[in-house]
Each structure stands twice: as C-alpha cells, then as structure tokens.
C-alpha cells in the first residue's frame, strides 16, 4: 500500500512516479506515463483499476489554481462535450497540496502536429474540419455566456486524427463574459485580440480573434508567427476554397470586435457550408497543390500601427491591397 497516494498523506506532484496509484472518488488510477508538465504540475496517462479505460489526469500543485479550473469546468457541465467538441472531465479529487482533474485521453495538440509536420502547409480539408468544430465549440460557450480566454495551438487537440475530430481543452482561465473587466490580462501575446491590448471593453469575441489566428497559423504552417522579419511571404494554390478561407479569416480578424463575425455566423460562411463552392480537395489531392500553375502570393507587412495585405495572382497578374489600422 506504500505506493497509494491518499488524502491524508503529504505529497508533491513532482514526487509521483510511473507505477504510483492515485485514489479518486470514482476509482483508483495507476500512473502509466507522464504526458507533459508545466508551471501547474504534470499531466499523467493513467488507467483505472478494474477498467480498460485510459484517462489523462492533470495534477495541479497549486491548490487554488486547481480549484479554479474545476470551477471553470463546472461552468460548461450543461454542454454536451462530444457534440460541442469540448474536453470531457470525469471527476476532480484532492489530497494534501495536490488537486487532480480526470479528463478523457486525447491524441496530440495542434502545436505538436505542426512541429511533427515540420511546419508544412496544412490541407484545407483539415482546416475546414478544425474551423467547423471550433466554431461549434465557441457557439456553445457563447450560449451560456462563457469565454475560454486562452485559445492557442496547444489548447486544441486531436480527439481522432483519422476522422479529423478535434476538441478544445484547458478551461483554467475560462470565465463568464460578464466578469471580463477592462484591462484584463488574458491570452498569450501572439493570439491576443486588439481590444485586450488596448484595454477596451471585452466580450466573447476575443475567443474568435484567437481562433482566427490559430486557423491562420495552421493553414500557413505557422510561418506568420515564427518569421524573423515583419514581412512574411506566402505562396498558395489559387482556387475558390482558398479564397473563401481567406475571406473567412478577414471576417474573423476584424480589429473592431463589433464587426467581427460570430461563431453562429461563421458556421454559415461558404467555407463551412460549401455553398457555391467546388468540393474541398482530399488530403491526397492536396499533396500536389503546389505543382499547379495558378498561384496566389500573399504579402503581409506591419509598420507601426498599420497592417497591410497584398494579394497577387501570378497567372493573371491581378493585385489587391488592403490596409488596417489598430486605431481606426
């Protein structure tokens, strides 16, 4: 019994080892391996004794932070986690100095996917599936007045890569929209909405901006945020689907949050509904996209508070230009 970790036994998450047991309210969990760690503690892949099921247990060393994440998860209990593409929580239990949250096991994050894919371009088939499911997730959160506040590449995971199923995870910073005061320090820098930076009134539209940045990173292979220079040059196959996606991005990345597209409206966009568009090419066909003649060059530059976008069709020589100002 010396390997069991009970409520009346002092311990620290860093002392946990593979093979240790955690005694929860709904069963006893055995640590099989550690999936990752951070400032909060560790995430362990665990099995439950007497069950073939596998779980991901987030072990949080800061008791207050653990309780806050549990309270945040309680906000979304009314939502169906599978229908709305949200991470499923089974239970929360505590013992001295440690909080454990038991979640469903998922595959890998978008961050890990891009790294393993060596930041190569992602087919629109993947992007569309990701966008549709995350729009549904944000629509559900908006319906109950909850803001995630921390949407980024490593907080969206594959639930099933073969069927392109995704889930939104980590609700540790989620709050009710009415509790978002001006000047709130939320979102990591590269996914931070303009209104957060400028200290303006906030609402759930901050999540849409962050998701728009995620979709751009995934499609453009995260080049935009990894570039050493402010000028970033992209070459993509031309076609209705890509142009429709870029149009959707423009609707999401509206500097004025009042003009930003909502999750419900995004679900009705042509890129998602496929109305008036040719079918999305399969992943196999996407491998040969770069060999086609027609290409679109996109040049994004930034200077002071101005963001400029230039689009040039290599085949027909058409060029379009649009400039945004953070203060307009």
Automatic annotation (TrEMBL):
Pfam families linked to this entry: Pkinase
Annotated residues for binding of ATP: 58
One GO term of the biological process aspect: intrinsic apoptotic signaling pathway in response to DNA damage by p53 class mediator
PROSITE patterns listed in its UniProt record: PROTEIN_KINASE_ATP, PROTEIN_KINASE_DOM, PROTEIN_KINASE_ST
SUPFAM superfamilies for this protein: Protein kinase-like (PK-like)
Domain of life (superkingdom): Eukaryota
Keywords (A to Z) from UniProt: ATP-binding, Kinase, Nucleotide-binding, Serine/threonine-protein kinase, Transferase
A single GO molecular function term of this UniProt record: SMAD binding
Domain Protein kinase: 29-272
GO cellular component, one term: nucleus
InterPro entries, alphabetized: Kinase-like_dom_sf, Prot_kinase_dom, Protein_kinase_ATP_BS, Ser/Thr_kinase_AS, Ser_Thr_dual-spec_kinase
Family as reported in the entry's similarity comment: Belongs to the protein kinase superfamily.
Protein name: Protein kinase domain-containing protein
Originating organism: Oryzias latipes
């Amino acid at each position: 019994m010396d390997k069991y970790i009970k409520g009346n036994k002092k311990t620290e998450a860093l002392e946990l080892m593979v093979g240790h047991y955690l005694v929860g309210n709904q069963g006893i969990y055995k640590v099989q391996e550690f999936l990752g760690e951070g400032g909060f503690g560790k995430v362990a892949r665990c099995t439950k004794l007497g069950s073939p099921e596998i779980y991901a247990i987030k072990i949080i060393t800061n008791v207050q932070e653990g309780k806050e994440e549990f309270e945040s998860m309680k906000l979304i209990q009314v939502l169906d986690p599978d229908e709305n593409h949200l991470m499923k929580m089974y239970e929360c239990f505590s013992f001295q100095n440690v909080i454990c949250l038991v979640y469903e096991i998922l595959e890998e994050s978008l961050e890990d996917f891009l790294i393993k894919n060596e930041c190569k371009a992602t087919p629109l088939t993947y992007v569309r599936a990701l966008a549709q499911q995350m729009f549904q997730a944000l629509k559900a959160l908006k319906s109950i007045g909850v803001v995630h506040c921390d949407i980024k590449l490593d907080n969206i995971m594959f639930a099933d890569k073969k069927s392109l199923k995704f889930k939104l995870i980590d609700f540790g910073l989620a709050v009710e929209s009415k509790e978002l005061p001006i000047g709130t320090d939320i979102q990591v820098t590269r996914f931070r909405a303009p209104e957060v930076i400028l200290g303006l009134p906030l609402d759930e539209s901050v999540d849409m901006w962050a998701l728009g940045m995620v979709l751009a990173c995934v499609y453009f292979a995260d080049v935009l945020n990894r570039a050493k220079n402010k000028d970033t040059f992209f070459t993509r196959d031309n076609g209705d689907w890509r142009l429709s996606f870029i149009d959707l991005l423009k609707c999401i990345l509206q500097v004025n949050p009042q003009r930003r597209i909502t999750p419900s409206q995004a679900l009705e966009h042509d890129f998602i509904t496929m109305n008036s568009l040719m079918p999305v090419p399969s992943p196999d066909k996407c491998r040969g996209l770069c060999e086609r003649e027609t290409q679109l060059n996109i040049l994004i530059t930034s200077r002071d508070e101005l963001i400029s976008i230039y689009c040039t069709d290599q085949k027909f020589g058409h060029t379009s230009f649009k400039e945004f100002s953070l203060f307009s």
